[in-house]
Write a structure and sequence with these properties.
By secondary structure, the chain is of the alpha/beta class. It folds into three domains: 67 residues, Arc Repressor Mutant, subunit A, CATH 1.10.10; 125 residues, ATPase, nucleotide binding domain (Nucleotidyltransferase, domain 5, 2-Layer Sandwich), CATH 3.30.420.40; 155 residues, ATPase, nucleotide binding domain (Nucleotidyltransferase, domain 5), CATH 3.30.420. The chain contains 13 helices and 14 strands. β4 and β5 form a beta hairpin. α2 packs across α3, α4 packs across α7 and α8 crosses α13.
Length: 401
């Protein structure tokens, strides 16, 4: 149980919250406080939220009746009335997370506790608009068939992550001419909602991965945070003050498009150096082929020495992108992750750290670490975003300290 002290407690929420018409905002605030301060009592919640004790007690009772909150054993031996610690019900809600990626899709079931209960991943050469929705929906049906009646009754919907503009690059992966035009008109969330009958929320895959990685960190979480996720292309996102920076279209923080110098000093995007597609191009130039299927199952030793050279150049490009990003937004931490095996990701992080030490940096030197979620980051983050948007306070940053 986390101890609540002035050092880790948020400032009281706007003290006008108790007025009529803001019941949902009050519930979100209280549920968020319980999530971020496991074991808090009614008195703790009233003090931290700025709500009155009776209002807080009524909200907690309602959340408990909806089985979103559960009570622990009464804490005795303290001054005043015995306090009852409150916790999120780890099985209070469920959400399906989906990633429709460039060369794979993933479908998983996430509990409110953050635990992944089931996961299915399929690989392909490119996202075929004629087949992919049927295939994804078939796996969603498989996941739902394995849920208990109680779990199914608490399923709130689907969080789906995908690249923001599949149309812009799908034909680079070998898709037939015409796929790009058809992807341009597709409403991914709408297609899944119509096929499954569930509420569906869409989020850019880089932003979803960033959110998932931020939540995977131990508290206190960094207030300035960026994540780079190496896949077919390089997904990325920024979480500032506990809020993902999505922008007007949901595609903001496209850090994979940051201009960096290539081996000859010419400007190019991070995607063109640090992505799996860049590794594929290097292999083809050497007369070799990129393996098929999930990169976790590749024999990476057989890709040497091409893979080693790619990792070094990717590390240099990502280090430059980190420094450039930090010049715009104060970053306390940047994580690097990807769809490769953990040992390969560790090599990449080591190369990023190496090249960061060689770059001129104004102010504090950026801190870089390896991510926690690997290839599951986008699907996990999309599911977590769905939970966040349904239950928790929009002012999450007030609690992320």
């Amino acid at each position: 149980m986390q101890k609540i002290s002035p050092a880790n407690a948020p400032e009281p929420l706007a003290r006008g919250f108790a007025q009529s018409g803001v019941r949902i905002a009050n519930e979100r605030a209280v549920l968020t406080l319980i999530a971020m301060n496991a074991g808090a009592s009614n008195a703790d919640l009233a003090r931290l939220s700025g709500l009155g004790p009776q209002t807080t007690s009524r909200i907690v009772s309602d959340l408990e009746a909806r089985e979103l909150v559960q009570r622990g054993e009464v804490l005795r031996g303290r001054r005043g009335q015995p306090a009852t610690p409150l916790f999120l019900n780890p099985d209070g809600a469920y959400v399906i997370g989906v990633e429709i990626g460039w060369r794979h899709f993933e479908v998983l079931l996430l509990a409110m506790s953050g635990k992944t209960l089931a996961s299915i991943r399929r690989s392909y050469e490119y996202p075929d608009i004629d087949t992919i929705f049927a295939e994804v929906c078939a796996e969603i049906a498989t996941i739902r068939a394995g849920m208990s009646e109680c779990q199914a009754g608490r399923l709130i919907g689907i969080g789906v992550a995908s690249p923001g503009h599949i149309d812009s690059n799908v034909e680079r992966l070998g898709a037939p001419v015409g796929q790009a035009d058809r992807w341009r008109e597709v409403d991914i969330a709408g297609r899944l909602a119509a096929s499954t009958g569930l509420d569906v929320g869409w989020v850019n895959d880089g932003n979803a991965a960033c959110w998932g990685e931020w939540l995977a960190l131990q508290r206190p979480r960094p207030l300035g945070f960026a994540a780079f996720h190496v896949g077919t292309f390089v997904g990325a996102g920024i979480a500032n003050d506990g809020t993902v920076w999505e922008g007007r279209t949901g595609n903001a923080a496209n850090l994979g498009a940051i201009m960096v110098p290539d081996a000859d000093g010419r400007p190019t995007g991070v995607h063109n150096i640090a992505s799996i597609l860049a590794l594929q191009r290097r292999l083809e130039q050497a007369g070799r082929q990129l393996p098929h299927g999930n990169p976790l199952n590749w024999d990476w030793s057989a890709l040497e020495p091409v893979a080693e050279a790619w990792l070094d150049d990717a590390g240099r490009a990502l280090a430059t992108a980190v420094v450039s990003t930090r010049a715009v937004i104060e970053l306390d931490l940047t994580v690097i992750d990807g769809i490769m095996p953990r040992a390969v990701v560790r090599q990449l992080v080591d190369r990023v750290t190496h090249h960061l030490a060689l770059l001129p940096v104004y102010g504090e030197r950026p801190l870089v670490a390896m991510g926690h979620l690997g290839g599951a980051a986008a699907a996990t983050g999309a599911a977590q975003m769905m939970l966040f948007r349904r239950y928790f306070s929009r002012a999450w940053n007030l609690f992320a300290i």
